[in-house]
Amino acid sequence: MNEDIVILSIETSCDETACSVIRNGNEVLSNIVVSQIDSHKRFGGVVPEVASRHHVETITVVIEEALEAARMTPADLSAVAVTEGPGLIGALLIGINAAKAFSFAHDLPLIPVHHIAGHVYANQLDEELHFPLVALIVSGGHTELIYMKDHLSFEVIGETRDDAVGEAYDKVARVIGLPYPGGPHVDRLSKEGHDIYEFPRAYLEPGSYDFSFSGVKSSVINTLHNQRQKGQEVNAADVAKSFQESVVEVLTVKTLRAVKDYGVENLIVAGGVAANSGLRARFEEKCQDEGIKLSVPQLKYCTDNAAMIGAVAYHLYKKGAFGTLELNGRNTIDIEEYTM
Amino acid sequence: MITLMIDTSNRPLSVAINEDGRMVAEINTTVRKTHSATIMVHINHLLESSGYKRSDINRIVVARGPGSYTGVRIGVTIAKTLAQALGVELYSVSSLAVIAASSGAKGNVLPMFDGRRGNVYSGLYHVSDHFEEMEAAGYKSLETVYEEMEKHEKVCLLADGSEAFTENLPKYTHAVPRITTVEQYPEILRRENIHEMVPEYLKISEAEKNWMNQQQS
Fold first, then answer.
1. Is the pTM of this model over 0.90?
2. Domain count of chain A?
3. pLDDT tens readout for residues B194-206
4. A134 and A117, same structural domain?
């Protein structure tokens, strides 16, 4: 007998309160995302306490909407999945406690999911994953390069040693006077500029797949500061373009080297920064040249959402990887712990 | 009527099941443990040991704050989600009123929690066979609290003696929550809309305070 696996998933690791109902790991029946971005804009970044307050305001609403939009009742569900971490601890705790209460009330298994695994599996919502693969996850909170030889097999081969790439974008946006969140604005403005500054590219020691973005960020800040002190006019578009070139070059060169070194033919680029047009275009061009199959999830599955959590949970469900009522949030979790 | 009651607003944790206002089972802890990891385990244990099923629960009462922001949110999130999932009514009670009811003290009582930087969360109640609010709950400086005390006779201070701020308090009575007691005072229970219910922080976040100050200047 081939029974459908229907999972209700919850994601509250940062500033999105999200709930989704998903069938068999790839059929999204509903995908509710309540973004708090308008609230955090006033602070120029996500404020953890404010994020937690918003999550508790909307959590039961998104659960109800996800069920209604999917035309499902709790009796139709096989399990409840939730992001365990990494993320803002106070924010995670809202999703986790709601998931535990929901699973308890309806006597459903509870499935804890790693947020980054969710970003990788977001791709499963568009097409099946092909292994082995390398995944680059780039967002406001994360920059990780992961090697997977099969489902639920995670090996971190590179990660940022300081700022996440999206974080660097936000800071650069701020110094050139662009609103938060800065990524999309810098990306748009960069199209009108030229790489005249040639900001540093941090390749770190030979062979390393790690990243560092604090150097280029400081270089942008210092360059602008010096120019302004000298009374020189700053062309924000040129700054945006030069910064983006530095970031895109390092990300693509390192990722493609990893793809080559690990002998894989499949590359996934996901996370909020995967929406960056400059980054996408460079990856598309290089992957085409080198015969690598590039997969980038649809935009709505690149940014934080709960459907991607349900996509991973499907595989965890099949392995019986269930959590207990003692499940707690963790602000950092090594994704390799999730390998099974 | 079976009521499930939850208070995780501060370091102590209190969960109870009442039947028609009388206590059936309760678990109260004062150890430093993460409520997020223990609360559902305790609720499960309460139901199992009292022989009730989840579907027997008719309503949920939760302490809505003030207190530790994270602590209050854990209780409120669980209460909201359980009430929604079980299709039962949701009620809230001030976490300060929980202390007043739990202490058993009668007359004028002044429960308080540490609010950091010389401030506290407090309210002043007259407790007899019913509950009357004499001074509204709020985030106050200790000076304000002492002024409020002066206005009323024979005020009994209630605080959790394990909290560091009690070192500098005048004579107080050690009190921790036993949420089972609040059904004795139906007037302190407030019916809530499940989706709209939010914790009663009594204080805006630091970020919002700074932002509002900036807007004014």
1. yes
2. 2
3. 999 999 999 999 9
4. no
What pLDDT shows up at residue A2?
62
Predicted confidence (pLDDT) per residue in A89-128, tens digit: 999 999 999 999 999 999 999 999 999 999 999 999 999 9
Which of A43, A56, A107 faces B76 most closely, judged by CB atoms? A56
- Of B105, B82, B66, the residue nearest B17 (C-alpha): B82
- ∠ CA(A59), CA(A62), CA(A63), 5° rounding? 85
Of B54, B198, B211, the CB nearest to A57: B198
CA distance B165 to B143: 14
Residue A80, min C-alpha distance to chain B (Å): 13
Tokens of B211: 């932002």
Contact indicator for A98, A10 with CB cutoff of 8 Å:
yes
Nearest partner of B8 among B48, B47, B37, B49, judged by Cα:
B37
Same domain, A136 and A283: yes
- Closest by CA to A72, choosing from A30, A16, A123, A117, is A30
**Claim to verify: residue A90 and residue A204 sit in the same structural domain:** no
Quick check: is A1 in a domain?
no
User: A69: domain CATH number?
Assistant: 3.30.420.40
- Identify from A40, A65, A82, A97 which residue to disrupt to test chain B contact, counting B C-beta atoms within 10 A and taking the largest count: A97
Q: Are residues A179 and A237 in the same domain?
A: yes
How many residues are given for chain A?
340
List pLDDT tens digits, range B133-144: 999 999 999 999
Range of the domain at A114: 6-121+302-338
Closest listed residue to residue A242, CA positions, set A269, A214, A223: A223
- ipTM, two decimals, is 0.97
Please check whether residue A324 is in contact with residue A104, taking contact to mean a CB–CB distance below 8 angstroms.
no
Q: How confident is the model at residue B168 (pLDDT cuts 50, 70, 90)?
A: confident
Cβ–Cβ < 8 Å for B81, B105 = no
Please compute the mean of the pLDDT values over residues B141-156 and round it to a whole number: 95
> What pLDDT, on the 0 to 100 scale, is given for residue B117?
87
Domains along chain B?
A: 2-95+177-203 (3.30.420.40), 96-174 (3.30.420.200)
Q: Would the CB atoms of B44 and A96 count as touching at under 8 Å? A: no
